[in-house]
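Late entry, evening session. Most of the bench is empty. Finally got around to the prediction I had been postponing all week. Sequence below, unchanged from the version circulated by S.P.
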Amino acid sequence: GKILLVLDGLDEVPPKLRERVRKAVGAAVEWWKIERILITSRKNAYTDENAFPKFEKYEIAELDEEKISAFARAWYKEQQRIKNFTDKEVEEKSKDLARRAVHKTLIGLSSNPMRLTSIAIIHTDGAELPTQRARLYNRLVNILSNKWQKEKTGNAEVSKELNAFLKDE
């Protein structure tokens, strides 16, 4: 009889449909007597004019150096399980990731959990860590495209068309 409704990424709803979504959510809350509802959105994309009335607003706190270091340790412990890294490799790699992620050139990116995960993927791949968001995402897309292609076909080579697109900054 208890419902927790979670709506993720409402900032991705086209602006012209947001009012309709607000009404639908309001109707669902009333109809099913939903006591708890969590709606997520990027903070700069869902402004007050788009917000749900009577809902409390919270922001996810940025990661500090301690949390970034804890993430790096946990990330490489999981990599150890997946890729059979030794304890020594895990220690070295997690310390290196934490050190690089909190450097002044990357801290603005790594304080965000999603971007820190992107940084960790790039770090695990052994690639250089870009300090600009666009280059970081470009590197991440290249890494993931090659991994997905390899899983799909057994060959890490992507098509000529995709390769040309990925190289176009």
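Two things to note before I forget:
The longest helix spans residues 133-153.
Strands lie at 4-7, 36-39.
Will write this up properly tomorrow.
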